[in-house]
Amino acid sequence: MLITKGNLLACKESLRLAKLGYELMDRKRVILMQELSKMMDDVKELRDVIDETYDKAYRSLQRANVSLGVIDRIANLMPVEEDIKIVYRSVMGIEIPKVTIEEKEVKIPYALSVSNSRLDEVFLQMRQVKLYTAKLAELDNGMYRLAKAIEKSRKRANALEQIVIPDLEIKIKTISDALEEKEREEFIRMKLVKKM
User: Fold this and answer.
1) To the nearest 10°, the Cα dihedral for 70, 101, 32, 18?
2) What architecture does CATH give domain 5-195?
3) Which of 31, 45, 122, 164 has a CB 3.0–4.6 Å from the CB of 60, allowing a cystine?
């Protein structure tokens, strides 16, 4: 690198931008960690609810199997629902999925003559399981994406703090020292020329 005042100014500007970049990366990391922490709390709460809901649904399924016999025939009548929609929201530039399930009027897809209230209970509980599972998938995927983004931000902030900024500070000091030395030499040279 040439030792000029222009290069010194360019290095100082680069240092200012690197410090600003570090602050922004650190702020981004903190915001993402807050969002991740909130999601982790939601997941913990949801996992407790989903475990309880699965237990209830499977107990109801067992009771329905006992009262109706094996209900595979009826289960095969259930339509495949394609009512899950995924949209994305941005958190500090990170795309976080938002899973929604269209709320439609619940139509029981089997004849009442081949079922009883226990099967209706299973049907409604499994629908609830589907809602909770979709929400859990949304949160798990969001947490994964946030964790990756936090790691990336941390690496970039560390690179700025431990490599780029110290490098620029060394360059600035080297150029400043060299320019000061040149000025002293020039001053001495001018004094010698005046004496002659």
Assistant:
1) 130
2) Orthogonal Bundle (1.10)
3) 122
Please name which of 26, 22, 1, 50 lies closest in space to residue 162, comparing C-alpha atoms.
22
> Which tokens in the block code for residue 184?
């002293």
Give the global pTM. Answer: 0.75
Q: Give the torsion through C-alpha atoms of 138, 140, 145, 151, to 10 deg.
A: 160
3-state secondary structure of 84: strand
Closest CA relative to residue 55, chosen from 116, 161, 128, 112: 128
Sign of CA dihedral 22, 27, 32, 36: positive
Whose tokens are 């929604």? That residue is: 100
Helix 165-195, helix 5-68: angle, nearest 10: 180
- Judge contact between 151 and 33, C-beta under 8 A: no
Write out the chain's pLDDT in tens, 196 residues. Answer: 788 899 999 999 999 999 999 999 999 999 999 999 999 999 999 999 999 999 998 888 888 777 777 666 666 666 667 778 888 988 888 899 998 887 777 666 655 555 667 777 877 888 888 889 999 999 999 999 999 999 999 999 999 999 999 999 999 999 999 999 999 988 888 888 887 7
Among candidates 124, 131, 50, which has minimal Cα distance to 83?
131
HSE of 79 in the Cβ direction (CA atoms, 13 Å)? 8
